[in-house]
Amino acid sequence: MTSVRALRMVEVETPPAFSEATPPELFERLRLVPVPVLFQRPPQGRGASRWIGVCPHARYTEIGEVVLDARLVETALWEPRADLIQAVYLHEVAHRLMPEGYGHGAAFGAMSLVLHLRAGKTNDFLMWHRITVYDFCDEGENVPRAFAWAWKISLELAPTERTAEECAALIVAEHTKWCTWLAGEEERQQARHEAARATTQAIEDRIKRLKESRWLWALGSLILGAGGAIRLLL
Ligand SMILES: [Zn+2]
Question: What is this structure's pTM?
Answer without folding.
Answer: 0.79
